[in-house]
């Protein structure tokens, strides 16, 4: 799982209806009424903000300001902890794929289809991902890796990712995953 998405999911699940309404009000100038009105959850709101690149792994300033504005210091401290990349609590250990997938998402870019083919993903699945996220390269990579992990099940191993990266001559990314 993407650590940022996990953080946003956690924040979303702790927001009351009033707090969500307050956030929508505060974001009316950034997002627009037409896009905001159908939003029913924090997840929907955060998805729009991620699409617009207002929230990203390396850009959480808007999120922090919003949480501060609605007086949710507890959630704000979760964001600050995420930024400082504190190790997760023992009962919240990431699975072995979480970090490598994040690294691959950060560095693979336009070579994502070539990588997924090297991992043996069917072309039909790649086409569906391409159609679902036509203008969101980061999301294509993330969803493709997520699909691969689901498709492979217990056989999905980091070693396979590294092998596929090297076969695509993405050695820099493979080195980053191994580090």
UniProtKB/TrEMBL annotation:
- Give one GO biological process term: regulation of apoptotic process
Question: Taking every annotated instance into account, which residue ranges of this chain make up the domain Death?
Answer: 97-179
| Entry-linked Pfam families | Death, DED
Q: Which terms does the record give in the GO molecular function aspect?
A: caspase binding; death receptor binding
Domain of life of the native organism: Eukaryota
Which PROSITE patterns does the UniProt entry name for this protein? DEATH_DOMAIN, DED
Matching InterPro entries? DEATH-like_dom_sf (IPR011029), Death_dom (IPR000488), DED_dom (IPR001875), FADD (IPR016729)
Q: What is this protein called?
A: FADD protein
What would be one Gene Ontology cellular-component term for the protein? CD95 death-inducing signaling complex
Q: Which residues form the DED domain?
A: 3-81
Q: Where are the transmembrane segments?
A: none
């Amino acid at each position: 799982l993407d650590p940022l998405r996990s953080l946003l999911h956690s924040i979303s699940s702790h927001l009351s209806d009033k707090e969500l309404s307050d956030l929508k009000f505060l974001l009316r100038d950034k997002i627009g009424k037409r896009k905001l009105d159908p939003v029913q959850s924090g997840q929907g709101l955060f998805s729009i903000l991620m699409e617009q690149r207002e929230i990203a792994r390396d850009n959480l300033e808007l999120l922090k300001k919003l949480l501060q504005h609605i007086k949710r210091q507890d959630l704000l401290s979760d964001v600050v902890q995420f930024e400082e990349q504190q190790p997760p609590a023992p009962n919240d250990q990431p699975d072995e794929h979480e970090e490598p997938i994040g690294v691959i998402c950060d560095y693979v870019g336009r070579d994502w289809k070539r990588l997924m083919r090297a991992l043996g993903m069917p072309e039909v699945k790649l086409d569906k991902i391409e159609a679902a996220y036509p203008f969101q390269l980061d999301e294509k990579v993330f969803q493709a890796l997520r699909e691969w992990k689901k498709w492979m099940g217990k056989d999905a191993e980091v070693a396979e990712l590294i092998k596929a990266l090297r076969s695509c001559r993405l050695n820099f990314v493979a080195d980053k995953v191994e580090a």
